[in-house]
């Protein structure tokens, strides 16, 4: 139930295109690890390699310490939940959930249709039935056991797919964007349920998603993938607070991080449109760089960087102010105000903003994070 | 007060009148829209069947000046007619060979061809060729192939050291031989149908089955392939049955009904067009129609419940 998954030097190409480039990743037993990234970053391929549905060109996969690179998916003792759920449409919910147990516990003769019932031992069949009912109870679908998948709603199908995965005790659960076919409200609900399920089972979960909110809310650790490589591996707060690259900074967080071009001067100080910020870039050659600040770290004051307000957006607890730099209309900035904070600015007004320099992220031309220390409180 | 009460029902009935007028106009429009389909169906199917049913109750002969109403005498005669009964038996034997072989061989071929990557197109075309060829022409080729003295099939049998087989004159072998030709002819069509069915099976069902522990190909076949091919199989079985019961060309070309090898359609053709017994032929046609109808309705009802999810 709780097994580690180790990937070493995984490489995979389709034709001349390298989908995965030398991936090393170790998933701890009982961990909820998300693989996130844009579509085409290789996250699904990586999951399929773990499942055994794709063969890696290079590298090895180990589950619970033993090498399974050459093993068929059926022999890996993994359970997978597909984006489409992949339920067998001709079987009832009960039969769907029972399939993994029938495949493992019954002989080939016992698995045959029609004649199988004669060859299978009654005790094993009874056992399977009990396990199926338990799994159905865990996911609150006991009342649906005799329906066909076509008679179920999307959320119910999702639960059946989960029940089919957890009816046996697999070494790990693999999930390939399982929530992406659900509507927004149900998705938020299922996020909580999945997290709770993970807590209860204590099993290893490897979860693929392109939705950073899913990854942030459920995971113990996130592996953010980009162009076939793991860009950063860490806890959700590590990724949010210390993005290792510009890609990570852009991908994680809603609303997106505010990015503005800056100039690192030869003495290490950082200049934004001629204003020297209270930041010192350590050990970096002078040249253009990118400054990132999250919406909640910007505050409106009587002095600072001048912005022109475009519009404000109310989200209940939060309000977002969308504005652009007075110096450059194309550079958009989003600020977050908490509900109590009064906003003394209307559309087209000019406001002045500042941010604590220790909250700023500085990225070099290659997109890699630069060490930057605050010299003083910033005033633009 | 009274005025208002009086007005109530009047205006209500006026509204009802207005509504029914609109309803009637809508109904006329609806009829106008279905008219072309109904008229075509009537002209092409329904009226001819009614005329046929009418003929089947008379002793009409093509070109005869007078004709008599003889009620069900034609049907009574048919079930006492040794030629008709023989043709019925022959057709059933033919169908019993052609339907299972034509369906299951095609399924097997489709499974084999489906997994070929580069050669798939070639095999598809190869097995489909007999479908595109005219059976009349092909029957002539088969006549040569199966010829007892000059045919290559018998040459091969002799080379293996066996006695030559009279495929097309030995009465017990005639129907099975023609059934084999029937299977050969229909195989490609059914294979292509099964291939289409296989292509439509979602890949992730196979992947789910593998992760569920389906290690044996049989498991994958019985968990995914066979149930998912249900609708295709139903269609293939029904079309194969109908074409099996319609066997005609092979008999007409290979034996012309000699050695007791008549089939339903061939007997019908003889009565209707060779002997000009229009009334009797009409009765046989009705019997044929009933058989086809019962078969296809029965199969559809029986299998439909199991096949669709």
TrEMBL record, chain A:
Q: Which UniProt keywords apply?
A: ATP-binding, Cell inner membrane, Cell membrane, Membrane, Nucleotide-binding, Sugar transport, Transport
Molecular-function annotations in GO: ATP binding
* Name under which the protein is recorded: Multiple sugar transport system ATP-binding protein
Residue stretches making up the ABC transporter domain = 5-252
For this protein, the record's CDD domains field holds: ABC_MalK_N
Q: Is ATP-binding set as a keyword in this record? A: yes
Entry superkingdom:
Bacteria
Q: Where in the cell is it found?
A: Cell inner membrane
- Pfam families reported in the protein's UniProt record: ABC_tran, TOBE_2
How is this protein situated with respect to the membrane? Peripheral membrane protein
Q: Does the keyword Membrane apply?
A: yes
Per the similarity annotation, which family is this?
Belongs to the ABC transporter superfamily.
Automatic annotation (TrEMBL), chain B:
Membrane topology classification: Multi-pass membrane protein
Instruction: Just give the chief location class.
Output: membrane
Database matches in Pfam families: BPD_transp_1
Q: Where is the ABC transmembrane type-1 domain?
A: 88-299
Q: Does the keyword Transmembrane apply?
A: yes
Subcellular compartments: Cell membrane
Q: Looking at the record's lineage, which domain of life comes first?
A: Bacteria
Respond yes or no to whether keyword Transit peptide is given for this record: no
List keywords of the entry alphabetically: Cell membrane, Membrane, Sugar transport, Transmembrane, Transmembrane helix, Transport
List where the protein spans the membrane: 30-55, 92-114, 126-145, 173-201, 221-245, 279-298
Tell me its family: Belongs to the binding-protein-dependent transport system permease family.
- Tell me what this protein is called: Multiple sugar transport system permease protein
Task: Give the species.
Answer: Pseudorhizobium tarimense
């Amino acid at each position: 139930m709780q097994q580690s998954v180790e990937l070493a030097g995984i490489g995979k190409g389709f034709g001349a295109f390298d989908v995965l480039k030398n991936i090393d990743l170790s998933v701890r037993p009982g961990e909820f690890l998300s693989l996130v990234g844009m579509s085409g970053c290789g996250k699904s391929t990586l999951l399929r390699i773990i499942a055994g549905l794709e063969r890696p060109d290079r590298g090895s996969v180990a589950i619970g310490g033993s090498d399974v690179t050459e093993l068929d998916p059926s022999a890996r003792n993994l359970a997978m939940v597909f984006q489409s759920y992949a339920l067998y449409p001709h079987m009832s919910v009960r039969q769907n959930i029972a399939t993994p147990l029938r495949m493992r516990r019954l002989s080939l003769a016992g698995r045959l249709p029609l004649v199988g019932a004669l060859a299978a031992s009654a005790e094993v069949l009874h056992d399977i039935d009990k396990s199926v009912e338990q799994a159905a109870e865990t996911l609150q679908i006991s009342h649906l056991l005799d329906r066909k998948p076509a008679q179920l709603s999307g959320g119910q199908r999702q639960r059946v797919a989960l029940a089919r995965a957890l009816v046996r005790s697999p070494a790990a659960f693999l999930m390939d964007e399982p929530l992406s076919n659900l509507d927004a409200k149900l998705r938020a609900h299922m996020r909580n349920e999945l997290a709770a399920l993970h807590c209860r089972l204590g099993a290893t979960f490897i979860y693929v998603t392109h939705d950073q909110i899913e990854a942030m809310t459920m995971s113990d650790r996130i592996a953010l993938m980009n162009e076939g490589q793991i860009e950063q591996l860490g806890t959700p707060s590590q990724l949010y607070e210390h993005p290792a690259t510009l890609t990570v900074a852009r991908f994680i967080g809603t609303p997106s991080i505010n990015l503005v071009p800056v100039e690192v001067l030869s003495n290490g100080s950082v200049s934004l449109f001629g204003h020297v910020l209270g930041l010192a870039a350590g050990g970096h050659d002078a040249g253009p760089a990118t400054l990132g600040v999250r919406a909640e770290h910007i505050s409106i004051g009587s002095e600072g960087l001048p912005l022109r307000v475009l519009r404000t957006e109310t989200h209940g607890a939060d309000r977002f102010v969308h504005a652009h730099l007075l110096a450059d209309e194309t550079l958009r900035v989003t600020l977050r105000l908490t509900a109590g904070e009064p906003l003394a600015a209307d559309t087209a007004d000019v406001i002045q903003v500042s941010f604590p320099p220790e909250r700023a992220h500085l990225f070099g031309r290659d997109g890699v994070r630069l060490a930057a220390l605050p010299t003083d409180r910033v005033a633009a | 007060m009274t005025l208002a009460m009086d007005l109530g029902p009047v205006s209500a009935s006026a509204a009802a009148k207005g509504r029914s007028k609109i309803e009637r106009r809508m109904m006329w429009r609806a009829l106008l829209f279905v008219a072309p389909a109904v008229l075509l169906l009537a002209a092409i199917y329904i009226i001819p069947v009614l005329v046929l049913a009418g003929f089947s109750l008379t002793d009409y002969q093509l070109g005869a000046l007078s004709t008599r109403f003889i009620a069900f005498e034609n049907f009574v005669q048919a079930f006492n007619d040794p030629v008709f009964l023989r043709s019925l038996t022959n057709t059933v034997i033919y169908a019993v060979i052609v339907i299972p072989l034509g369906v299951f061989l095609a399924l097997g071929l489709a499974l084999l061809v489906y997994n070929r990557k580069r050669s798939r197109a070639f095999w598809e075309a190869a097995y489909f060729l007999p479908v595109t060829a005219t059976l009349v022409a092909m029957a002539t080729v088969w006549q040569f192939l199966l010829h007892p003295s000059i045919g290559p099939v018998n040459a091969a049998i002799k080379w293996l050291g066996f006695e030559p087989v009279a495929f097309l004159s030995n009465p017990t072998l005639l129907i099975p031989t023609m059934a084999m030709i029937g299977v050969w002819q229909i195989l490609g069509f059914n294979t292509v149908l099964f291939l289409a069915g296989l292509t439509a099976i979602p890949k992730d069902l196979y992947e789910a089955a593998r992760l569920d522990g389906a290690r044996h190909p049989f498991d994958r076949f019985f968990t995914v392939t066979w149930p998912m091919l249900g609708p295709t199989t139903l269609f293939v079985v029904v079309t194969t049955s109908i074409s099996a019961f319609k066997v005609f060309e092979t008999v007409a070309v290979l034996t012309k009904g000699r050695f007791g090898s008549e089939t339903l359609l061939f007997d019908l053709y003889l009565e209707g067009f060779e002997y000009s017994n229009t009334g009797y032929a009409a009765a046989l046609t009705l019997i044929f129609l009933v058989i086809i109808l019962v078969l296809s309705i029965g199969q559809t009802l029986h299998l439909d419940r199991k096949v669709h999810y």
